[in-house]
Amino acid sequence: MKLKLALATACVLGATGLANAQDPNLARNLAATCANCHGTNGKSVGGMDSLAGEPRDKLLQKMMDFKSGDKPATIMHQISKGYSDEQLALIADYFAAQK
Amino acid sequence: MLNRREFIKSMGAVAAGTSVVGGLAGCAGMGGGKGGHVVVVGGGYGGATVAKYLRMWSKGSVAVTLVERNPDFVSCPISNLVIGGQKTMADITVSYDGLKSKWGVKVIKDEVVGLDPAKREVRLAQGGTLSYDRVVLSPGIDFMTDQIGGLAGNEELIPHAWKAGPQTVLLRKQLEDMKDGGVFAIQIPKAPYRCPPGPYERACLVANYLKTHKPKSKVIILDANDDIQSKKGLFLRAFQGPYKDILEYRPNSALLEVDARNRVAKLEFGDVKADVLNVIPPMRAGDIATKAGLPLINDRWVDVDWLSMEAKGVPGVHVLGDAIFPAPTMPKSGHMANQHGKLAAAAILNMLDGREPSATPVVMNTCYSFVDDKNVIHVASVHQYDAEKKTVLPVQGAGGVSVAASELEGKYALAWAQNIWADMLA
User: Fold this and answer.
1) Mutating which of A28, A75, A88 best tests the B interface, going by the most B Cβ atoms within 10 A?
2) How far is B395 from chain A, CA to nearest CA, in Å?
3) Which of A16, A20, A30, A33 to mutate to test the interface with B (most CBs of B within 10 A)?
4) Which fold has domain B4-142+284-357?
5) Prediction pTM value
6) Residues B321, B304: contact at Cβ < 8 Å?
7) Closest-CA residue of chain A to B58
8) Is the ipTM of this complex over 0.85?
9) Which CATH number fits domain B146-281: 3.40.630.30, 1.25.40.10, 3.50.50.60, 3.40.50.620?
10) Residue ranges of chain B that CATH labels 3.50.50.60
C-alpha cells in the first residue's frame, strides 16, 4: 500500500492547489463529516479514536487501508470508499494539523 | 435555559423596540456579530449543529440566535432504549448550556410562528420579532394526524413517541402497565418518514423487553410499506430468530382509522386489537416550513439547493434535516441533519462574506440500530455532489450494512451518541 499512498499524496499536491482556489475551507468541511463519530475537529469524547494531532501519513495510510480492504473494520471500510483518495488526503492533513 | 427573569428581560427588549441582536452586541465574548446575524429555528440535530459550527468557524464574528421551544435537547436516537427499559430520559437529555457558555449562542426558549423573507425577520409566539441576515429552519417534522380517522386529540391513548420527550415516557409507562399476554402493535407510515430503521428497532427492543418480563405477550408490526425499509436482512434475522415466537411482521398494512378508547387499529382488511397501540402517523416538514410558504414537494417536504441548503427560490432561508425533500437514497436521520448543518454553516459563512458556497459538498450517514439490549447493526452511506444533476448522490460501491449484529457495534452505537451530542452541543 505504500506505493498507493505515495501516489495519492502526489495527486493531492496537484489537486490541493486547485481545490484551494475553489474553496479554502475544503479540508475543514470534509473533515467535519467525520466529527459525528470522531468528535469535533477529531477530538473524541470517548469510545471512538481521536484523530486530532495524529501524524498525517499514519492517518492517510489507515484510511487507504480501510478503503482497499487491507485493514478490516465494522464500518470504516464502507465509509472510506465514499471519498476520493484526494479527499482522504485533505482530511488527513486537517486532522494532523489539529492541536 | 433562560430563567424567568432573563426571559422577561429579553422579551421586554423586543417590546421596547430594541432588537435582541442589539443586546447581543454588548455582550462580552459574543464577538459583536460584525460578520452578520443568523437566526436558527429549532435546536435538534440540524439546528444545534449549524449554530455551533457558525460560531466556531467564524471565530465568533457571526452572531447566532437559536430559537427552541423545549428547555433541553432530548435525543430521538437512543430513545428506543428508554422504551425498551435500558436507558432513562436523563441519559438522552442534554442541556443547551454548552452552546450558550462555550460558543456564545443566544438561546431563546420560544417558538417561531412566522417568517417574512422580504423583511428578513421571524415572529415569535410569545411576542416580538428577530431580524436576521440569514435564517436556518431546522423544524423537524409534524404529523398529519387527520389522515387517520379517530387519532386526532388521542395521542395520550395512542402515543407516537416519534418525537422524544413526554411521549417517550408515556409509551414506556404503557408497556410497563400492560398485562402479561397483552399485544403491542406498532404502525409504520409510508416512506419517507423520520428514521427509516427506527420502528423496526423499536419493535425489537419491545419484543426483547416482553420476552424477558411478559413472555406471553405479542408484538405486531403493521407496516404501511410493502417491505422492511432499512437493514432488511438484519432485521429479518432478529424477527425470525430470537423473536420468532413473539413478533409478527405484516407488510401492506396501512392504518385507516383507530378506535382510541379500545385501542383497535382498523386496516383495509380487518381490525387489530391491541393493549398498547403505537401509531406513527404520516408526517411532513415542521409547521413553520409550510406556514412560511416555502416550495414543497408532494405538499410535504421543502425543496432545497444542495450547495447551500437554501429553500429553492427563497434567498436567505436555509432548511435542514428531516423537513427537506431528501436527495436520492438519503435517509431522514439525526446524523444526516448534523451533516446538513455543517454544509449549511460552511455555505452561510461564504455567502455572508460575499463568496459562492463550496461547489463540492459531501455528506455521509451512519445509523446504528439495537436488535436487543446489547447487539447492534448499522447502515452507512456517503453522498457526493453531482454538478450535472444538481443534487448529492450516494457513492456507488461505498456504504453498506453490518455483516451481523454484534456487541462491538453496540459499544460503537453508544459512543456515536456521546460524540454526536458533543459535536452539536458541547
Assistant:
1) A75
2) 5
3) A33
4) FAD/NAD(P)-binding domain (3.50.50)
5) 0.91
6) no
7) A25
8) yes
9) 3.50.50.60
10) 4-142+284-357, 146-281
Rounded to a whole number of angstroms, the distance from the CA of A96 to the nearest CA of chain B is 18
**CA-based Rg of chain A, rounded to a whole angstrom?**
13
DSSP B138: -
Q: Provide the grid cell at B264.
A: 383497535
Instruction: Dump pLDDT digits (tens) for B194-236.
Output: 999 999 999 999 999 999 999 999 999 999 999 999 999 999 9
Looking at beta carbons, which residues of chain B come within 8 Å of A87? Answer: 362
Backbone phi and psi for residue A69, each to the nearest 5 degrees, phi listed first: 95, -5
**All 3 cell numbers of residue B142?**
409534524
Containing domain of residue A51, as a range? 2-96
Contacts of A22 in chain B (CB under 8 A): 358-360
Q: Which residue among B395, B406, B422 sits closest to A82, beta carbon to beta carbon? A: B395
Other CB atoms closer than 10 Å to residue B41's CB: what's the count? 29
CB distance B367 to B333 below 8 Å: yes
